[in-house]
Amino acid sequence: MTVPLALYYTRDHEWVRLDGDVVTIGITDHAQEELSDVVFVELPDFGKVEAADSVAVVESVKAASDIFAPFNGEIIEINIDLVADPSKVNTDPYEGGWIFKMRLSDLSQIDSLMGAETYTSFVS
Amino acid sequence: MRYIDFTSGSAKLPALEGGARFGGGFSDALLITGGKLAGTGQQGEGALAIGWVDKVEVGSHSRVVSDVLKLSPLDQEHRDLGARLVPFAGWEMPVMYDSIIAEHLAVRSECGIFDISHMGQVFVTGNSAEGWLDRHLTNNVSELEAGKAHYTFLLNEEGGVIDDLILYRLADERFLLLVNASCIQKDWAWLAERLEKGITMENESGEWAGMAVQGPKAPEIYTEVTEGRTLPSRNSVDEITYQGSRMLVCRTGYTGEDGFELFCPAGDVVRWWKGFLEAGVKPCGLGARDSLRLEMCYPLNGQDLTPCRTPIEAGLGMFVDLEKGEFVGCEVLKAQKEEGCRERLRALRLTERAAPPRPGYPVLSEDGDSLSVLTSGGLSPSLGEGIGLAYLPSNRAKIGTKVFIEMRGRKISAIVSEKPLFRK
């Protein structure tokens, strides 16, 4: 199970990459392993969302998993590569398998997330 | 049957029947059978494993954890292979080993192996067994030769399906009913109530393990593993003793590929399983078993077949012989044959890219009227699209009829298609 050090993590097994006031979000290696074959990603709509809103769905052969907005903010970009190739969520969860990007108005929301070490213990 | 965990940790424990038969991972265990202490020790993770509970004195720190799931005799093999195990019909069975899609595709292209030890085996013997079976099953038993098998149904008085099964004629007066794991008790009770003099019925379900080896390479794999034997022909069964092991080898399957189902005493199955894996066969779980049969539009009892559905409605009339004489449920089926059915089980393919359709999703007409729900649904790995089965009103069920499947509030286009959905 990979847990990159530079990322932040939620209790719902999402990772967050911070770049200025924009965050990129996907699901962790642990999450993609649990789901196994991802066959469809219902990508989010653009626009304002609140923390804990269900914004996307990742579907595997046997299960559907809701993806939640970790923060209040605005969804500004979605990974349309996942339409043609949803399996990127499995094969490349932290790079090519990214799901959406948000602009945050309040960056202090990051403080509530776990770091790599905490997430690793959380998962064990 | 319940088990009690005497520690605060949780432990997944095997079913214990007739004494101590543990799955792997246990060094010792505390066994309580019928209220008596039968052994002592500690389970690997520090929890204590318990057998039956009748009236047992338990410490204040104990708690009833759950009903026990039966373990396959291949359980340790599955765990060693890293399988994901799930409850199925009261058993703990592998749903997948590495990937449902990879396992599915391996069966279509080469060869896969499934643990089917959970299925039930009921043996029926007697010189009037043939006639009795003909009066309780839908397919023609008198025309079934020794050494042959056919697919058939056990119906209730209304013509509804209690179980779908394979009937093997091992000899003129000896038959094997291979039944679904979830229906062993039900089938037994139904037949036992209707048993006639001179006919013996034995439930040997717990004694037999089984493996389904399926795929285009299955016949050559069989020859390799048995050092030269040839598979019987399609729908035939060989009853043999090989290297001291009793075996039933049946050229049947639930995947649409060539292959066989091999049954042997539970104590012998591990070496057969290992032999097939060594020959390069891929272990496959229930997830792939479901997607393979769904592509073929083979029904799943409990979803596509129920006590309220007849084989005629399900489009399986070719496994029903209405000319052979009376059998339980035949009157309803005869009427349906003559007058038609109100609903028919139809195969659907999605015509747009979407999430996998799943059982229970609503099926709507092109105009948005509610028609039905999917009885089965999923992604077809071979076709790369969503597929499903649903009972549609007969006047709205022609091949080519456009429908919608409702998924999370969205209407996804689909079309009524010919069966099977997958063809090579």
Quick gist of this model?
The complex is a heterodimer of chains A (124) and B (424). With 124 residues, chain A is α+β, with helices and mostly antiparallel strands.
Radius of gyration from the alpha-carbon trace of chain B, in angstroms: 23 Å
CATH superfamily of chain A: RNA polymerase II/Efflux pump adaptor protein, barrel-sandwich hybrid domain
CATH class call of chain A: Mainly Beta
Number of beta strands of chain A: 9
Please write the string of helix (H) and strand (E) elements of chain A: EEEHEEEEEHHEH
Write up this protein.
Chain A is α+β, with helices and mostly antiparallel strands and 124 residues long. Helices cover 19% and strands 35% of the residues of chain A. Chain A has one domain (8-105): RNA polymerase II/Efflux pump adaptor protein, barrel-sandwich hybrid domain (OB fold (Dihydrolipoamide Acetyltransferase, E2P), Beta Barrel). Chain A starts with 7 loop residues before the first strand and ends with a helix. The model of chain A has no long low-confidence stretch (mean pLDDT 95). Chain B has 424 residues and is of the alpha+beta class. Chain B has 3 domains: 1-68, no CATH class; 70-341, 2-Layer Sandwich (Gyrase A, domain 2); 342-424, Beta Barrel (Elongation Factor Tu (Ef-tu), domain 3). Chain B is built from 8 helices and 24 strands. The longest helix of chain B has 10 residues, at 100-109. Mean pLDDT of chain B is 87; it is low at 1-66. The chains are: A alpha+beta (124), B alpha+beta (424).
